[in-house]
């Protein structure tokens, strides 16, 4: 659910007990599984966009894209996700569109939403390394996709391992054996590459780019970038703007 107004509600557990009431702010979202059912008790006004996505769709998407299977999604409550918020904003005007126009656009928006959820919140079944101790191409692709989709969140190794179906030790050894880099080295390199792309192709502020690329703050980004490139990001942008 993507909340369109501030909402107060609590979960109703299977035994009828209720969790503490929580405020979910406008623009935040909840992502939950309906496998065992779900119920909430709402206090006051409730306005939200509700998306129901069958699990089979994620299996189909993975097969068509040649990507590792997604077994489940992380349960999230009241988090801010700019992509989901933007998709919600694109959907709202469609309620007033003629049916023919809406039906043409909806599949594309639904595909974009499902792909984003799979990459950012997807959980793969238990994985194992090959006999050589390396990752398969699909396993490596899933790990890289998860890191890319969650870069702004800091991407701790234990979270990457859990999402991609590995133990931390297997993930680290398999990634190093396959790529020649540790997970942390690859993330650091990818952060810089993403930051350079943002600097050269967008008008985003330095602070915003630092946040999107997973740096702790703007000062840390500027210091890291300057050490790597020999100049601060603002000066690099002036020389490399596309």
Description:
With 242 residues, the chain is mainly alpha-helical. Helix content is 51%, strand content 12%. The chain contains ten helices and nine strands. The chain has a three-stranded antiparallel sheet, with no helix packed on it. It has a two-stranded antiparallel ribbon with strand order 1-6. Strands 4-8 form a two-stranded antiparallel sheet. The radius of gyration is 20 Å and the shape is globular.
The ordered H/E elements are: EEEEEEHEEHHEHHHHHHH
Unreliable residue runs: none
Strand order of the largest sheet: 3-2-5
In helices, the fraction of residues equals 40-55%
Inertia-based shape: globular
Q: In percent, how much strand structure appears in the residues? A: 5-15%
Distance between the ends? 38 Å
Class from secondary-structure proportions: mainly alpha
Rg, Å, rounded: 20 Å
Topology:
Blueprint lengths: L1 E2 L3 E5 L10 E3 L3 E4 L8 E4 L4 E2 L5 H11 L6 E2 L2 E5 L1 H10 L7 H23 E2 L13 H13 L7 H8 L3 H12 L3 H19 L4 H7 L5 H12 L3 H8 L2
Antiparallel strand pairs: 1-6, 2-3, 2-5, 4-8, 7-9
Helix pairs in contact: 2-3, 3-4, 4-5, 5-6, 8-9
Task: Give a short synopsis of this structure.
The chain is built from ten helices and nine strands. With 242 residues, it is mostly helical. The mean pLDDT is 92.
Annotation keywords:
globular, 242 residues, 12% strand, mainly alpha, two-stranded antiparallel sheet, three-stranded antiparallel β-sheet, 9 strands
């Amino acid at each position: 659910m993507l909340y369109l107004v501030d909402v107060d509600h609590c979960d109703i557990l299977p035994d009828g007990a209720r969790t503490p009431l929580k405020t979910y702010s406008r623009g935040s979202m909840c992502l939950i599984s309906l496998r065992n059912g779900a119920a909430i008790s709402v206090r006051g006004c409730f306005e939200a966009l509700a998306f129901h996505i069958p699990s089979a769709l994620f299996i189909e998407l993975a097969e068509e894209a040649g990507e590792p299977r997604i077994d489940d999604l992380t349960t999230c409550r009241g988090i801010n996700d700019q992509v989901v918020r933007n998709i919600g904003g694109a959907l709202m005007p469609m309620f007033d569109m003629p049916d023919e126009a809406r039906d043409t656009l909806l599949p594309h928006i639904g595909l974009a939403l499902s792909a984003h959820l799979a990459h950012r919140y997807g959980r793969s079944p238990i994985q194992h390394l090959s006999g050589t101790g390396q990752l398969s191409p699909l396993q490596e692709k899933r790990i890289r996709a998860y890191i890319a989709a969650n870069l702004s969140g800091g991407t701790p190794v234990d979270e990457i391992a859990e999402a991609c179906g590995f133990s931390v030790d297997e993930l680290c050894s398999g990634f190093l054996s396959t790529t020649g880099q540790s997970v942390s080295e690859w993330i650091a390199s990818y952060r810089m590459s993403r930051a350079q792309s943002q600097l050269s192709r967008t008008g985003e502020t330095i602070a915003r780019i630092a946040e999107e690329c997973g740096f702790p703050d703007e000062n840390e980004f500027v210091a890291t970038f300057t050490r790597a490139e020999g100049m601060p990001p603002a000066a690099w942008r002036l020389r490399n703007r596309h």
